[in-house]
Amino acid sequence: MDDYMFEVHLNRCKSIKEETTYLEIFSYSDQSFNTIQENPLTDDEFNDYLDQKGTFSPPELPEGLTRLESMRLILQKNAKNPETLSPCHISLTAKQYKSMVRAMHLPQRFIESTTCVGPFFCAAWDQDEENPHLQIVMRKSDLRRRLTRGWELTLSHDVNTATTTGFCKGTPSSDIVNCIAHLKACISQTAHPLLLPTIIFSHEVSFQNDIKQREARNWLRQIEHALSMGRDTHYVDKKGVTQFDTLAAEITECHSQVIWKNPKAYLKILAGLEGSLHKFWEELPKQRRGKETRQLHNSMLARLAFYKARLQGIDSYANTTLQRLGVQRAALYNMMAQKESKLSFEMAREQRKPAYASTRDSAAMKSVSLLGAIFLPGAYLAAPAMSESFWIYWAFTIPITLGVVGGWLWYERKQDYIENQENNKDGQLEKNMEVDIVNKMRVRIQQKISTWEASPNIRLAGNENDPRRIISREWRGGDVIA
Questions:
Q1: Which helix (H) or strand (E) element contains residue 60?
Q2: Residue 452, SS3 per DSSP
Q3: Where do transmembrane segments lie in this chain (predicted)?
Q4: Are 61 and 69 in contact (CB under 8 A)?
């Protein structure tokens, strides 16, 4: 089944080119013979390196010198292709990839991990009972600005010969270069197959995670001061208006920084590493359980326990920050809703003024029309063609005109007085509208039926000077509940 799945996924993958090097670390009974070599690996030398032929043949050892452990890796430390860690992409040719898996006893499942998301770790023994190999797959990949970033690692450890082989790749944004440098400094500890995975995990959960959480908490305090206390002028423009858009964007960015490198995901990786350490120690031959190996194994377990406590602290700290961010986000949305309500109210008030002006203009036009209708008969009667007596104009038209004009002036003044009264009432209503709404809400809340049948009277039982006095509640019904 594994062979078929490997062939299917290999045919599905697309090959890309990356700069490749090899790393060989050999540790001998005499430490003066220990060697570390890292050089470029060309396509012509690839198969010779896998088969340890030609220039890669094991050196002849002097009499009495034995090789204790070794590590042979194929490295791509600065993978720069944009698709280097994309799903269904491999940075070797299909033939080279297949030869590498076969010759180094690497897990065939490794090719299926190209689509994995987030931190990934898996370790298991192969099916060779005579010469078992511990096979490890570890990977983390992500996408940023259309470029993949991260790293991947696969290892195979022969428990009988203490030989570890594998393939490691990382983008420039990863810490693979520093991890390999760290590995070279531990030449006498390469017998443990989980040394390199532990080093990579240590760099992933470095002190930068704690610093980012502290920076996010300080950022949160600035947001709280701007929203709840109004003391931070960073979010206030020149006109004294709080920039809610900036606050909303920074709350989102702060939230992203808090959940960066989620501790829960790395706690699961840590649990996998601990389980793999126990698996390795259970299957390790007794002749390899020397003092140094046992000390290294216990040291790695202690380090993982330290990282576990550290990640749990970060997780608790981040959860508190996220809860406080949620409170500030809710407060921001409430403030924005209040501002929008006030703006809508102001717009409605401004739209009402032109409506009132239009109503007054219409009333004035009606008044002019009414005056014209009243004066027209008088002018008609005063015409020489209608009456020979001009006194009629003085006797009827002028008194009527004065009465109408006086009545019109009295009506207009009354309307102005009424309008001023209404404007004053509206202004007072606008000022007290929010207070009235809040008071009404409080009254409604107070009028709701309480789950308690009666309010308790708190009394203290025992001597007043006794610090162990019992506090009890005496209910109006007469029952006492201590």
A1: none
A2: coil
A3: 391-411
A4: no
Closest CA to 405 of 376, 380, 382, 372: 372
Weakest mean pLDDT among 63-77, 142-156, 238-252, 378-392: 378-392
Higher-pLDDT residue of 213 and 454 is 213
Task: In whole angstroms, give the CA distance from residue 429 to residue 351.
Answer: 17
Question: Do the beta carbons of residue 22 and residue 75 sit within 8 Å?
Answer: yes
pLDDT at 392 over 50: yes
DSSP element (H, E) containing 312: helix 291-381
Report the Cα 367 to chain-centroid distance in Å.
68
Angular region, 301: left φ>0, alpha ψ -120 to 50, beta rest: alpha
Q: Which amino acid is at 441?
A: M
d(CA 147, CA 247): 29
- φ and ψ at residue 121, rounded to 5 degrees: -150, 135
Q: Are 21 and 38 in contact (CB under 8 A)?
A: yes
pLDDT digits (tens, 9 = 90+) for 105-135: 999 889 988 888 889 999 999 888 888 899 9
User: Quick one: which of 301, 312, 68 has its CA closest to 198?
Assistant: 301
Average pLDDT over residues 418-432: 72
DSSP label of 114? G
User: Pairing state of beta strands 21-28 and 67-76?
Assistant: antiparallel
Neighbouring C-beta atoms of residue 400, cutoff 10 Å: 14
Burial (Cβ within 10 Å: 0-12, 13-18, ≥19) of residue 436: exposed
The larger pLDDT score, comparing residue 282 to residue 455, is at 282
CA atoms within 13 A on the CB side of 357: 6
Q: Which residue has the tokens 């970060």?
A: 314
Domain boundaries, the chain: 2-58+66-204, 205-355, 356-438, 449-482
Residue 1 has pLDDT above 50, yes or no: yes
Q: Measure the N-to-C terminal CA separation of the chain; round to a whole number of Å.
A: 70
Query: Position 305: which residue type?
Result: A
| Pick from 242-251, 261-270, 401-410, 442-451: least confident | 442-451
